[in-house]
Design a protein that fits this description.
mainly beta
């Protein structure tokens, strides 16, 4: 505990009743800080923390209190951190302690092991209205940005998040992020107790960069002129297992194994082990095709429907061998 106090005193008034009031105010401020320190459970996650404070008597006889909590390490059951700083400012007036600004924090690294998530160079704040929840040992609503966010080994650049943990261990999350050659917005709910989640996202990103190189060699070569647009709804069952997924996507000027498409629009879903393409529209010059597809992941049975106006043999290089057999007499 370290601190300073700025207290204007007048010699001729040192023994007046007003000075006794001033002495009481400063005594009350120190007692408030001491009472906070007695709540050791609130500081237990911080390893060898330092609390710096600065007191200043204002003209209205209230006391301005600025604090900085610093710790090289944070070790909570849900969160691990390095080089933590938390800055706050309060006013003590007539025995009431009120926040005069948002509580700001930064950390060189934060990690949530259960979520397999970590963030680098984190800057954030708790709202001015929520500081009392923090003082009571509750997680308040917060917002933060970071240089990078890694989720299950996938790295997202420049994320900005808002998290509402008022129903902890279930909490709401929303935000935006750069990366994957584009940017996206997302929102949803995560339940740490059951390890389940429901998330929605939309934006222009290159999802191919998420596919391992070994798997990319098994699919046709894709070249995008720009990151495709996606809108998705994702549901994860307990254990963060994929339960269902609905995706809408569209892109312009896509090249597949040297075949250039002017426009592609798709709507697909996965649920109960069945992958379905409800609608896939492709346009290439005056040619066009509408495709529907259904695949059972367990039995590997599939169905495919196609209608359109196209020259079939021009697509031999991107379709299975049976495609050539069907249209060999055209």
């Amino acid at each position: 505990l370290r601190g300073t106090a700025e207290w204007p005193l007048k010699i001729q008034q040192r023994r007046t009743p007003r000075d006794r009031t001033t002495a009481g105010v400063i005594d009350q401020a120190y007692k408030q800080i001491a009472a906070s320190l007695k709540q050791s459970a609130r500081f237990n996650p911080f390893i060898r923390p330092t609390l710096y404070f600065k007191l200043k008597l204002l003209e209205n006889e209230s006391v301005q209190i600025s604090t900085r909590l610093s710790s090289r390490r944070l070790n909570h059951e849900e969160l691990i951190g390095q080089n933590i700083l938390i800055d706050s400012a309060f006013q003590l007036k007539q025995g009431q302690l009120d926040s005069s600004s948002s509580i700001r924090f930064k950390a060189s690294k934060l990690e949530a092991p259960r979520l397999k998530t970590s963030a680098e160079s984190v800057y954030g704040q708790f709202s001015q209205e929520d500081w009392s929840a923090l003082a009571n040992g509750e997680w308040p609503e917060l917002e933060f940005s970071a240089e990078a966010l890694t989720i299950h080994n996938y790295r997202i650049e420049a994320p900005k998040l808002q998290i509402d943990p008022s129903d902890y261990p279930r909490f709401q999350v929303s935000g935006s992020a750069d990366g994957l050659k584009g940017a996206a917005e997302f929102s949803g709910q995560i339940d740490l107790e059951t390890q389940s989640a429901k998330l929605t996202a939309q934006g222009n990103v290159d999802l191919l960069s998420l596919i391992p190189k070994a798997q990319l060699q098994k699919i046709p070569q894709l070249e995008f002129s720009q990151a495709p647009y996606y809108a998705l709804n994702l549901s994860l069952s307990p254990g963060f297992q994929l339960e269902s997924l609905q995706v809408q996507a569209q892109t312009q000027q896509l090249t597949v194994n040297g075949i250039r498409f002017d426009h592609i629009q798709a709507k697909s879903q996965f649920a109960d082990g069945v992958f379905t393409i409800d609608d896939l529209y492709l346009r290439r010059g005056s040619q066009w095709m509408n495709l529907k597809f259904n695949l059972d992941r367990h039995s590997l049975d599939y169905r495919l429907g196609l209608c359109g106006s196209a020259v079939p043999y021009e697509y031999n290089s991107i379709l299975p061998g049976w495609w050539t057999s069907i249209f060999k007499d055209f």
